[in-house]
Structure of Glycosyl transferase family 1:
Amino acid sequence: MKIAVIAHLKFPISEPFHGGLEMHTHALVQQLMARGHEVTLFALPDSDPNFRTIAPPLQATDQLDDAKRFREEPVFGRDFINKFYAYSAVLRKIGQEPFDLVHNNSLHYLPLALGHTLHCPMVTTLHCPPFESLRAGVILASPYAGNHFVAVSQSLGREWAPDLQQYSVIPNGIAVDGWAFSPAATERTAFWFGRICPEKGPEYAIRAARLAGFRLRLAGSIYDQDYFDRTIAPELGGDVEYIGHLNHAEVCREAGRAAVGLFTSVWEEPFGLVLPELLACGTPVAAFDSGAAREILDERSGIIVPKCDVAALADALPKAAALNRAHCRQRVDHHFTFDQMIDRYEALYHQLVPGLYSTTAHRSPSVSVA
């Protein structure tokens, strides 16, 4: 099958990943290619060189004759115009090639608003809760039969349901074999990783770890420097250490030697890839009750407490650390692998593109996780 994958245009689709969306897009392209599909990725130019990547023009405003006199407006500023032009170029290019299907992994409304003009079906994975511009695109796209939507969790699907006529739920997967299982860990140690920003709540991990008497190591890209400088940096030192933006091997090593992982998202987390990644290393999790956490963790792999309750999270740390690490790994093996995710996407693709059936398309695209 000839597939176009549209990425968002904020970060390259390459390691180290800035977040779960980049990782999901990379895995989707890599795994589809491994199964023999011809995949073209529309993404930033510094994306994985092993992919066939087409980078759209990103600085349309620089081409204006009066660029030096260009003035930002409250709504239609440079970034709006540049992204609008870039995604327009992506859609024009897709329209010029005989793709069988488009997988839209962007967070921009334009591919949705214009998807019905393409000559092939489009699958859009919803990775985030409704926000104004993306919601507008979904509302415009949902009446057209060629568009199909996928939510990465049941909780996210419920948030989008008022605007959608139908959708599937396909949980994210990870490359389980790439996460080395660690049967033992260092006592009273905790690990937190993710984007360093307010909605991920690393300050709660710091407070809970200190209250419980656990040493904490934090890792991830600093997405909000002001937040880091104001809220996180003053708390570092002694039993709390920020160890930087790690590559995959480094994250795996840190997770494997931690007695417990911390998940402290204070927004409704659409999925939370850090959860299956920690579990794959055998690391049980103490988590806030955020978004899809209850769909990923069960009573044998994590302890879930009310959001923003530091005392409850601190109390959960030693309880989670006592859980069986083999059960944590089994949870991922049974529910959250790349193969399972791609099986479900392929099943959906072949429903939308009749006559291109493959032996891998044997699962229903709509799934639930017990």
About this structure: The chain has two domains: 2-171+337-352, 176-334. The radius of gyration is 21 Å. Residues 357-370 have pLDDT under 50 and may be disordered.
